[in-house]
Write a structure and sequence with these properties.
Order of helices and strands: HHHHH
Largest sheet: none
Pfam family, one: Phage_Bbp19
Strand content: under 5%
Number of strands: 0
Shape: globular
Helix content: 55-70%
Protein name: Bbp19-like phage domain-containing protein
Structural class: mainly alpha
InterPro entries: Bbp19-like_phage (IPR057447)
Length: 104
């Protein structure tokens, strides 16, 4: 198997930005990709304030996670309405699960 690199996908430098944006959009702008984005947002805490007692090393780690998520968002270029819906989906991911009698 040969992994597709950006240099293989777009031979000319000026075509690379468009090629990588298309690749990100094809991965994340589908039903499964949206689910993954909501999970990543919840996991990295992108929409949550960090704990006030966070040590510098842990704070740097958290900042790195958030920066990677922000890169994904920048690459897919979603509308403000889509971003609000993604933020709500991420919020729902952080809520505890409540089991009901119907679950059994």
């Amino acid at each position: 198997m040969v992994w597709h690199s950006l240099k293989r996908v777009a031979r000319r430098r000026r075509d690379r930005a468009a090629a990588i944006e298309r690749a990100y959009r094809s991965v994340f702008l589908c039903r499964e990709g949206e689910t993954v984005l909501a999970d990543l947002a919840a996991e990295c805490g992108i929409y949550q304030a960090p704990p006030s007692s966070l040590e510098p090393r842990a704070s740097g780690y958290l900042d790195g996670r958030k920066a990677l998520y922000a890169r994904i968002l920048a690459m897919i270029r979603i509308s403000p309405e889509e971003h609000a819906a993604l933020q709500e989906a991420a919020r729902l991911e952080t809520l505890p699960d409540f089991e009901t009698d119907e679950d059994f």
